[in-house]
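SUBJECT: A protein chain and its fold
Encoding: whole-number codes for local backbone shapes
RECORD BEGINS BELOW THIS LINE
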Amino acid sequence: MDKTSENRDHPVLVLVVPCYNEEAVIEKTAGVLAGKLERLASAGAISADSRILFVDDGSKDDTFDILYRLSGQDPVCSVLKLAGNSGHQNAILAGMMTAKDYADIVVTIDADLQQDIEVLDDFIAKYKEGCEVVYGVRNDRNSDGLLKKATATMYYRLMRVMGSSVIPNHADYRLVSSKVLGALAEYSEVNLFLRGLIPTMGFTSDIVYFDVKEREAGTSKYTLRKMMRLAADGITSFSARPLHLIGAAGGLVILWGIIMFIITLVDWIKGRNVPGYTTLLTVILIVGGAILFSLGVIGEYIAKVYMETKRRPLYIIDSVIWHGPSGATDDKGKEQ
């Protein structure tokens, strides 16, 4: 089934759920989400053709086997299997690009059921009022540990300082319309950061607040290393301000050097014997560290340019199991 027109009164909703090694929770997630879709459809809020699209991002456990079984038991469950682990952002994009031919609206949501699904009613209401994008923003970070809470706060502040339009305390729980999906399909960048990209598109948007729940089962797959990588991508993908700051810092170092040269020259003229070993060593270490740090930041940008020029696919689709009014389809070997 290909979607040909947008229906704001009874939209076809597709829930895109990225999954990576979620065997402990995925069956319960499928049941909870299917129940929510059924209630929304019964209330007339969405079309009965609405679906859940699970995106298996190269899981190494039994996640796909469970999803395959669930898709055979309940036609509301569809499955997109990626050939390998493409990463969280690419898995979300793969799901959205697959769903765009079938859906009026797509909501991306994590598989751990920590994001409150009851606010889907508010998402849909905002869409019917004319919003093309609705961001799910958590009310607070009380469920996080002290370290994660502190680093998250610093991260969003840093993103703002660096010029990014990312929404504070918004992860990837959002609604986007078919119009947004069509526009998003025109983007071809390899360095993908949806949290920063979608707000820059300019579509009418609003925010829905929700409370974060405890994880139903399993453990978070978002390691500290992955979070740091995402933070770096968010800054370098949407702002050249770090490069500008490096230039400004370089100017200050040059000014400092000129001042030190004048002071040293005056001391030499007055015949003062200043050994200055400790001062010289300190200056060398500080300036050397600043140079290496600056080269690292510049290297991040060069690496992104390098990846963009290679034009490799963001993901490779192994198979699609989609249940629609016309039956199930199974497409293999697609790339994007």
User: Anything to note?
Assistant: The two ends are 20 Å apart (CA to CA). The longest strand covers residues 316-324. The beta strands are 13-19, 51-56, 77-82, 105-108, 133-138, 170-177, 205-210, 316-324, 327-329, 332-335. Residues 191 and 304 are 7 Å apart (CA to CA).
